[in-house]
């Protein structure tokens, strides 16, 4: 009996993942070319949330820009505020009071916790855990957001930092609540690890999936937890200390393989380090003013400046060109999320559709920052 | 602490290799002739003691007379950084050589600059508008852009 | 009008239709009506339990506004979908798109025909009952594939393809793990199987239970094998393009399948309607909901597997283990048919040993394809 | 992929979800249960103090959205300089609070109320007397600690959720 080879004619097809898709974290769109379930190629399409923030910045006063920065990476507005204020302070040469520096560090680290809560929660949700990790992490984020509401009066767009400090001092019930929060968060991180760290299905889905080699990560300008998961030991809090980060003790968690699981683990480890930093900052927060004497309308000298911070998603920088007027001549945001997406195409090729979602989720982007 | 290298030192180091291409644009930024950008970036990336292997960002500024494209490079190994600048004076059809071949991270950022400033990056493999749709009139971040 | 008082007291006459008022047709009419009512009520209960339990596991409340404790939530949901607009996509294959929910729904109700609710209380005491269940339950796939194809949506098609692949593979371990039970009980009739369970078969067939539960989860697309409607990947899978009543049908199918499988599991492994003190039908309902609650629990905890892992799990993990289980059971039935506790000890030990060994051996690779 | 932990990782996760059944749910059933918002909340509407306002328009300059419009003029009858119109387009307002911070005379406050949705867009443009403090629109303590002291304390989730000690 002879065997007859039967070959079916197949052809790749194009699937639009997004802009309205449950797990594209906003309005990201990928034109995905599929061969059955295998991703052959993706072509990212941006711009659905483009609001022209950089153009708007050119028309506002230096203080009036701060609410705009809230709307860049709307998951972590405190970090955006901090980066922008640092840039303007560097330009004007303003010295920030001690207490304000400590408050800024506390806020930035709380923001990192809140951001990583969302990042790991939605990553696991993308992996298919039916909303449970998502709900747990959102519950914890809610506690943090409560504190932000207490100090700044808003739950999303905090607009808390000002050029030369922070807008107002913390209310007296803030520090006790923070201490309670840190205790609860520590227990939560442990429990969360217990929930899914050793879960076989999660390991199968994420370990070894979407490996980002170190060289590619450097070449693509990847930063933040994604870069650290690939083994790049770069953290601006350590390498280019801004504010008062050189006073605190903390470790930089680094992954080994650079896969999705490592990115998830690095984020959880960073949450623990953030808790450590907040504890140290809480212990020796001094009394005093929270804002330097800065005029209502800031008028920096002509010149240009670049200040960057380690935002939860990576290196967030503001490049400001001033011509000596009350508004910047040009203000460029280094978009962490956009640059982190550069390597996505290399990471997902050859994986399945399900992996595409997991890898994309593990990068943790915000469309507000990608499109601006 | 990331050290921003002084423009003087860089120029002194690179001037014999790239004669006439470099100038000081400020204490810590080097002005490079547009045509020499890929070669300079390549050299900065691989040169002994320089090793600027990380491209922080690329952006552009419109100064009416010319467009200035700014590159910020960092060396992860030596933890030092540098600002490179290049200018193109042609307003109608400005163009700068692309560095995508050297730094893949420049991909989306060059597309963004092309979209919002209209600066063409020669040699970019996929130079299309990124945020705005094809056919959008004008380039919004130019100073003379009028809706 | 049949006399329903025996139903309430729990003393139903035997299933032989001849004794019934109205003879064969009276029996048929009563049980058909009762079954469909029962299935729908159970589905409503299942939806309520799933939403409430899932809510509590996720640190929220779940629906609690409609009626006492939100008990009327399924009714409200049903009313809502009934009055919703029915949208058919323009390029869809209209006939297939319309037929799909019906084709998917009918087999699920048919499963209930052979499920014994208490002694003798079943529509058809088929002597090949379990074979019938397996045969009928996989027919739903046809409806789902029709839905995926007829919608002319790529997401739907992906979901439908995944479903067909999953069901075809998981039929085999499903049937093989049933065979152990059949060997012990000595009959294919579900009624006989229940009557044979002086000790619930979960003790005699622990591995059979485990394998059957996992295979059943995959068969009915419950988490972690809910690939065909993986909401984070392919939006809603095969029912992306369905709305209104047709969507409600698919929703119904999903839960009716889950209830049917829970019923089969409780019949095969948990002793069906048998239990002390409480009336038999109540025992049956409790067991069904307990099994269903376990499914909800897994859904609340686990991430979803990938399609190649799903296949590998069926062929490399479930299939060999179910074969070994069948083999071990066959030997036990031959050699020690009258020593249930010895069988229990041996089988539990075998299960633990095999799961540990196979966990080490089992590999699915990383799933990347060079392109 | 291997089952490195023999399925124990799965079981561990299941214990966590099971434990959550017995915990206090995090849900707040909004219209029936209300939490106290922050004393500094930047609520929906601005509250304007007519007596204190001098019409200097510092707030209008500070507003990044340009949502505040002030018309001033001389009042020859009473022989003083007065604010004729103080108009806020709440539809443009982003509740950033910069106007409150900039006001040198403490004449403008953020609103403490938050359920102030309108059906008509024209209702969003508020001026003069509609902007004054009333029972429905109290002042918020944003940038005004003396106002904050009189408001109820914020309900915090950290204190509301009493987790059982493990």
Q: Percentage of helical residues of chain C? A: 55-70%
How would you classify the helix and strand content of chain C by structural class? mainly alpha
Shape of chain C: globular
Residue share in β-strands of chain C: under 5%
Walk me through the structure.
The complex is a heterotetramer of chains A (372), B (147), C (371) and D (166). Chain A has helices at residues 53-57, 66-70, 77-92, 98-126, 132-152, 174-196, 200-206, 214-219, 225-229, 236-239, 260-283, 336-340, 344-348, 353-363, 367-371, and strands at residues 13-17, 29-35, 38-45, 161-162, 165-166, 303-311, 314-322, 330-334. Chain A is α+β, with helices and mostly antiparallel strands and 372 residues long. Chain A has a single domain, classed as Cytochrome-c3 Hydrogenase, chain B (Orthogonal Bundle), CATH 1.10.645. In chain A, a hairpin with a 2-residue loop joins strand 6 and strand 7. The N and C termini of chain A lie far apart (66 Å). With 147 residues, chain B is α/β, with parallel strands linked by helices. Chain B has one domain (3-122): NADH:ubiquinone oxidoreductase Nqo5 subunit (Beta Polymerase, domain 2). Chain B is 20% helix and 29% strand. Chain B contains 3 helices and 8 strands. Chain C is mainly alpha-helical. Chain C has one domain (83-361). Chain C has helices spanning 5-9, 23-57, 73-82, 94-111, 129-137, 140-150, 154-185, 190-196, 201-204, 206-219, 244-268, 280-301, 307-335, 340-361. Chain C is globular, with a radius of gyration of 21 Å. The chains are: A alpha+beta (372), B alpha/beta (147), C mainly alpha (371), D alpha+beta (166).
